[in-house]
Amino acid sequence: MKCDIKMMLKAGAGLAAVVAVAYATFPAARELITAWAPALFFLICPMMMFFMMKGMQSCHKEQDIRKPEARPVPLPDTKNILDERR
User: 10 Å Cβ neighbour count for 8?
Assistant: First the structure.
């Protein structure tokens, strides 16, 4: 998932809806909401990238990644080789 224009517009529309609902719901905090809204719109892409990277890390925790260990090569049975030559 990339932080492209289409995803940014969706996130911006979602954030605008959240800000509008908060503005209508909390009349006492309207000054705070209008003060913080531009900063939140500026931080959309970094916040999306942070949460995306956190989501990608949770997928890799389930997989157990180990380096393959060197296994000894089984040696052929020397008795059978000597018996076959005779």
Answer: 13
